[in-house]
Amino acid sequence: MKVSYSFLDEQFKDPEPILQDIKALVKSGDFTLGNALEEFEQKFAKFAHRKYAIGVGTGTDAIRLSLLALGIGQRDEVITTPNTFYATVGAIATTGAKPVFVDIRDDFAIDPSKIEAAITPKTKAIVPVHLNGCPADMVKIMEIAKKHNLKVVEDTCQAIGATVEGKRTGSYGDTGAYSLHPLKNINVWGDGGMIVTDSEEIRDKLILLRNHGLINRDECVMYAYNCRLDTMQAVVGLYVIKQVEWIIGERAKNGEYYDKELANIPQIRTPKRDQRYTYVHHNYVVFAEKRDELLKHLLEKGVDAKIHYPIPLHKQKASEYLGYKEGDFPVTERHCKEIISLPAHQHLTQEQKEYVISSIKEFYDGS
Ligand SMILES: *Cc1c(COP(=O)(O)O)cnc(C)c1O
User: Fold this and answer.
1) Is the pTM higher than 0.90?
2) By CB count within 10 A, which of 178, 202, 233, 365 is most buried?
3) Ligand 1 center to residue 199 CA distance, Å?
């Protein structure tokens, strides 16, 4: 049996309805900004439990423009975690601000009890990452941010649809940053991103930042970027957002199934789940004994397991200038050796999930 990590061929098996809508767009010539984007932004804001949504070019732009709109740049420090996707740190660094890492807990998110020790007079913001579709502790993070007068930009690119105490991840901070990359839970046919916020002031700044600083066709009030969400991608987004509740529901169910079945395998440890959260398992990640051998075994069995991520950010060449060393973030470093991601996407069949579990059992029984 083959259990693939990717699901795109299944998801877009019948592209016809989307192509019909794109045809209509082509006829209208409405290629930048325009009606489809506005409609998508309105639907997205509602989904995200926020007042406003602003479509941008990528998830990376969503983080970077959020920071810029909050006035963050040169000489500032921004706190985040070293176990994220490169883009979180790239977005911080390319504003001119210095990324400052704080270690994580076994739930993959920033450890709130370690944040205050990393705050300096230069600290301006925290970028918590809801990695793997598992929420960070937004209640505690917002308390710390308030106490120290810090901005918060939530990187919820991997947690589209997850909740903390009934509210979506991305709805706690000054802004929430979403990616619409093909592998995310609301995905378009290429790159895309979305920023959500409740602040009219931040929304207005973002609208300038993404579109040349123009207040109308002929007047520019600030030099800025061109990073709008493509209208054609908004058409795809409008289609996918209709399925998102089903997508996150299926991923959550797959996670629950694996949690239950893996509890019977002593060599696998599942992260502790928090009753206040809902999970969407962008990556379904557990801790495994003999991880490298298990990975090899699963790949041989046709189960497309992966590691997210094998090299933490503080050990990447790009981070050399930050001066971190091995041992600075022990939980992150331990995770790199123990974590394994199992296919958990919305198109998995029951047989495929059972096969994943039996393949893991077979490995430990035989070793
Ligand atoms: C995907 C992702 C991003 C960036 O999104 P792009 O749309 O690819 O730019 C940022 N942070 C995390 C955690 C991501 O998974």
Assistant:
1) yes
2) 178
3) 23
Q: 274 alpha carbon to ligand 1 midpoint, in Å? A: 24
pLDDT per residue as tens digits for the range 239-291: 999 999 999 999 999 999 999 999 999 999 999 999 999 999 999 999 999 99
CA distance 235 to 239: 7
Question: Among the atoms of ligand 1, which is closest to the Cα of residue 91?
Answer: 10
Q: Which of 60, 180, 233 for a ligand 1 pocket mutation test, highest count of atoms within 8 Å of Cβ?
A: 60
Phi and psi of 132, rounded to 5°? 65, 10
- For 185-215, the pLDDT digits (tens) are 999 999 999 999 999 999 999 999 999 999 9
Structure tokens at 62: 């969503």
Residue nearest to atom 2 of ligand 1 (CA): 157
What is the atom index within ligand 1 of the atom nearest the CA of 181? 7
Q: Dump the DSSP string for 207-222.
A: HHHHBTTEEETTEESS
